[in-house]
Amino acid sequence: MWRELDSAGGILASRDPLTNSFIPNLVWLPVQVSKLTDREGSFAQRFLQALAIKIYRSLPLDPPLLPLVERAWRLLPDPGRPEIALPGLAEVSFFNHDPQFVRRRVRSIQKVAAALQAQGKGREIEGKVISSRYTSGLAQLDGTIARRLHGELSAYLEAVAAE
């Protein structure tokens, strides 16, 4: 939904580790609708951004997650008020997940973090991480970038583990 970051000098949200998979910035849409939301500044894009703010901005968070989430929100530009009223939360469809889903995601993040740590230290990445293509992409990262991403993922994993 947010393509460009507000305070990052033209950096794309998909390129920032805080906003790339930030739940308020993710939405599943039919292709026909996504064509409308992919247009920067379009009504559909700003409407979904405002709806994401309504749904997620005031959710209570455990203290360890709060600094990470606040940093991500600060990067996203304010879409302004939509021209029509936002629906009530009872009118919006949500996906439910089970604890196993969360555990699988955490394990995947741990694998990626370990691979980034190895890459950041100039060591070879052992085994497949997510997929062969993903592993080869990680192996091409500059060590400085790998260390930065490892730090971000490690901070996130620590915050999630503290819940």
Describe the structure.
The protein is an all-alpha fold and 163 residues long. The protein has two domains: 1-95, no CATH class; 97-163, no CATH class. It has six helices and no strands. It starts with 30 loop residues before the first helix and ends with a helix.
Give a quick rundown of the structure.
The protein has 163 residues and is mainly alpha-helical. It is 49% helix and 0% strand. The protein has two domains: 95 residues, no CATH class; 67 residues, no CATH class.
| Helix-strand string | HHHHHH
Rg for CA atoms: 17 Å
Query: Structural class of the secondary elements?
Result: mainly alpha
- Measured between the Cα atoms of the first and last residue, the distance is 28 Å
Low-confidence stretches: none
Largest sheet: none
| Number of β-strand runs | 0
Number of domains: 2
> How helix-rich are the residues, as a percent range?
40-55%
Q: Averaged pLDDT, please?
A: 89
